[in-house]
Amino acid sequence: MFIPIIFGVGDERRPVAHGVRRHCPVCGTETPHHLVEARRRFTLFFIPVWKWNRRRLLVCNVCGDTRPAPEDAALP
Q1: Which of these ranges, 18-22, 32-36, 71-75, has the smallest mean pLDDT?
Q2: pLDDT tens figures, 5-28
């Protein structure tokens, strides 16, 4: 008897703050960046079972470049 098991590993991103003004080193503009919290997660039958590797990232509003957020980034 064969029982299919559906599982997966992926990233989950949650917005934390909008409008953090930073200079982007890739596109060279000073624009509002989005501060997001990213985590890796393991799902079993589309239900999140385990989350790990929490990190905060800054995402450029113009080019989409993603970098680790510095400690002085605006937090809610």
Answers
A1: 71-75
A2: 888 999 999 998 888 788 999 999
Domain ranges of the chain: 12-38+55-69
Structure tokens at 35: 């501060």
Give the helix, strand, coil percentages of the chain, each rounded to 5.
Answer: 0, 65, 35
User: Are the C-beta atoms of residues 67 and 58 closer than 8 Å to each other?
Assistant: yes
The span from the CA of 71 to the CA of 53, in Å, is: 17
pTM for the structure as a whole: 0.72
**Residues 46/57, Cβ–Cβ less than 8 Å:** no
